Amino acid sequence: MKNLFYPIIFAIICFIGCSGTTKKSGDETPQKKITITRFDKDLYSYLQNPDAVKESGLKEKYPLLLPAFGRIAMDNSDPGTFFPTLREYFAHPMLIDIYKESLKTFADITSYEEELGEVNDRIAEKFRGRKLPELAMHVSGFKENVIILNNLISISTDKYLGSDYGAYQEFFQPFERQQMQPQFLVRDYLKAWLMSDIIKADEEDQQNLLSAIIYEGKVLYILSALLPEKKAEDLIGYTTTQYEWSKHNEKSTWQTIVKQNYLYSTDHMVITRFINDGAYTAAISKDSPGRIGSWIGWQIVDLYAKKKGVTLTDLIGTDAQTILKESKYNP
Q1: The model's pTM
Q2: Engineered SS bond to 215: which of 99, 120, 130, 205, CB 3.0-4.6 Å?
Q3: Distances (CA, A) of 240 to 43, 176, 294
Q4: What gap in Å lies between CA 184 and CA 197, rounded to an integer?
């Protein structure tokens, strides 16, 4: 059974690019209501009673999402065997249980759609002419969490069934399960959009640890601007205890980064230790939370933005060294 699942908490696949730019410059009227496309329900309906008519309907309704989903769920995009393989994949009893639980948990998604609608209005205000792309839901069987296609983001709802969900215990560590809760769904839609279409990572962003943590800091800062009602710890995915530890140990964490010459390190292992999810950040302390570099980057970006009074667009275009220097960050 273990071979069936490959836990990847946040992977973006099939990236073609999302551009939600249909709103005209100067038009500040509220965006229309956000509606999340229920690919998960349509696919489940087919799996329960498969026939050629439903297969044609799925191909017509989801010309891009269906084959992309097939590649992540089954590693199969062969038109001749696609649907038989799909049925075989989802015939596993545990996968059926997961699918049913996902549909039950997200039977009513009105609150998520309303929250995303509010976010979309803030996007229109802060990023003139932009809006969220089309949003969808799928169930992948604990595989890729996010699929990004042309003007479409789909999230796998089976990664948001609650940290205590029984099937998670065998496949995910406690620090992974921590964010596998329904309240993180809207944040992750927005994070996927930001990272794929707004603050795209490129080679320059990953040149050294400073570039990496400032990139992460920009993402978190913009999340805080677009989701002002969210607690800071929820934006980064920390418990209250982890967030308080970060605040109380901010000075010593920064001193370690500087004194150990980590800040301008181009070592991939050093960078990933500071910005990747984990039980703790080994380079700092076993008491520290994971991604402490991302948290530090957020503090630097926040300080810079407050001092300079920059717009979000200007912030995105500012390089890491300038942000660090002009923030005068010294906790």
Answers
A1: 0.89
A2: 205
A3: 38, 16, 16
A4: 20
